[in-house]
Amino acid sequence: MRNFSLKQKALLTFGIAALSTALLAGCNVFSIVDKPSGDEQILSKARACFDQADYDCAREYYAQLSSSYADVRASEEAFMILAENGATMADFMETFGSGGSGQALTELAERMAPGSEVKRLKIHEAFKKYGSISAADNPSLRALVRFVGSVALAAEFLSEEISSSGGQLLKTRISSLGGACPSTIQACANCTAPTDPILKNGISNPDFLSSSLNGQIDLGHFKKAMVEMSAALNELSAAGGFSDGAGGLSQDILSQDLDNNLGTQECFRSNMLSLGIGR
Questions:
Q1: CB of 11 closer than 8 Å to CB of 140
Q2: Residue burial 66-102, b: 16+ Cβ < 10 Å; e: rest
Q3: Which of 93, 159, 183, 255 registers the highest number of CB atoms within 10 A of its CB?
Q4: Are 40 and 52 within 8 A, CB to CB?
Q5: What integer pLDDT is reported at residue 244 of this predicted model?
């Protein structure tokens, strides 16, 4: 795959640099406009509200942007929804900033814990924002929102296996054998689902842009999130750390068969553990 342009590198390290810097530093880098008028002032006000974690205020001003700012509105609304639900840009940068892996996904899931169906639906709303961004005018921004949204969905699916804030994603919530589960696909028998899992056995393959994610979730939902992650990385022409980390993770998951055969489901869980998902 080709190397990033400077613009793509900035995006893939969760650019929108002023926004990311503000979230990490905890300070307001946007000027507050008392009575904003025009898209630039309205956007500055929306970002300032976002910087202060005043999401109702941010939502109010993003909604006032004209259609010419539709792509900016959709992307920043996606980031705002993620931040409201435990997946801030700082969290992404600190867990996936070096490329992403099963361990990074585990850490992000733990930061987002405890997961819930309500939170899942909100994160799904953020993911779907990418579909509103022009593929012709802003392909990298569109792909970035798709990538961040799919990572957050995968992490949310896992975080629903964590019962409390500050809890850990234990391997025994991926498979009943936990760390004793065979580490090779060839010996994956008996890597059965844990008792009463949230991420159940199954092969659901929903269209994340058009389907609802309410109700029961299964391994198929998790695999679909990896499909979306991989597609977004391809659109971004990800190279280097992201190609090896998040790209390698998604490709390893995609290469693992998933069907209604119990043995196949066990092997899928074994593969998740072998990729560093869970502690």
A1: yes
A2: eeebebbbbbbbbbbbbbbbbbbbbbbeebbbebbbb
A3: 159
A4: no
A5: 58
Task: List pLDDT tens digits, range 53-67.
Answer: 899 999 999 999 999
Q: Of all helices (H) and strands (E), which one includes residue 199?
A: strand 199-200
Report the alpha-carbon distance of residue 109 to residue 162 in Å, rounded: 8
The Cα–Cα gap between 243 and 122 comes to 28
3 state SS of 89: helix
- Residue 100: the pLDDT is 76
What is the rounded CA–CA span in Å between residue 255 and residue 267? 12
Report residue 269 as tokens. Answer: 């869980």
Partners of 217 in beta bridges: 199
Per-residue pLDDT, 104: 93
Weakly modelled stretches of the chain, pLDDT under 70: 1-35, 98-99, 183-186, 238-245
Q: What is the pTM of this model?
A: 0.84
Classify 273 as helix, strand or coil.
helix
- CB contact at 8 A, 91 and 159: no
Q: Report residue 86 as tokens.
A: 């435990």
Residue among 214, 213, 188, 218 at smallest CA distance from 201: 218
Predicted local confidence at residue 17, as pLDDT: 42
Distance CA 108, CA 3 (A): 26
Q: Are 30 and 49 within 8 A, CB to CB?
A: no
Tokens at residue 202, please?
Answer: 């199954």
